[in-house]
Design brief:
Layout lengths: L3 E5 L2 E5 L4 H5 L3 E5 L3 E6 L10 E8 L3 E8 L2 E7 L5 E6 L6 E5 L3 H14 L1
Parallel strand pairs: 7-9
Antiparallel strand pairs: 1-2, 2-3, 4-8, 5-6, 6-7, 8-9
Length: 119
């Protein structure tokens, strides 16, 4: 089940869908657009190191969801299908990156890039 990424005023909203709320231990993330550095589609990200869970769920090839710590950064994950992964880079936030599966990675990246360019 994909996350829903949207823009509401000056905020980026990530809604975690379905049972992923349980695995990720989150249902919604709100980030001011001023703290969003950009977004990229990255289908290969799931092959890399995740770091250690705190708290989170990781079943290789099935799901990565929740909070992970890697190289001193806190990263939020919600990915089943890595081919649909988008990485949203943040600054001055609790998370350094949000790695989420979305229905249309190209459209999501374009949405984030348009919104951050306008800010």
């Amino acid at each position: 089940m994909a996350a829903n990424v949207s823009i509401d005023g000056d905020n980026l909203i990530v809604e975690i869908e379905g049972l992923n709320k349980l695995w990720a231990l989150k249902s919604r993330l709100v980030v001011p657009l001023a703290n969003v550095r950009g977004a990229t589609a990255d289908p290969g990200i799931s092959r890399g190191a995740k770091g250690f869970r705190a708290p989170g769920t990781h079943f290789p090839g099935v799901i990565t969801a929740g909070t992970f710590h890697l190289h001193g950064d806190r990263v939020f994950w919600d990915v089943h299908d890595a081919t649909k992964a988008v990485v949203i880079e943040l600054k001055d936030e609790r998370y350094a990156r949000l790695v989420v599966e979305v229905a249309d990675p190209r459209a999501t990246v374009a949405l984030v890039e348009r919104a951050t360019a306008a800010n």
